[in-house]
Write the structure tokens for this entry.
Amino acid sequence: MRKVADCRDYPSETNCTLTISGEEDEVVRAASEHAVSVHGHTDSAELHDQIRGMLKDEVPQHA
């Protein structure tokens, strides 16, 4: 199942609205890079674990 990381779920000084979806490992990698480059976090195993823990299942869109 695809996973989603949504910055809107977490308060930030920039009021970030980015949403990242895809396979779990892809989302963790992209969200970690975003957290470091935009939000000033330090890239670490702990950051990756935190992001993995906040992921939600993507809700399928029906046409």
Q: What stands out?
A: The two ends are 19 Å apart (CA to CA). The first strand starts at residue 3 and ends at 6. The beta strands are 3-6, 19-22, 56-57. The first helix runs from residue 24 to 39.
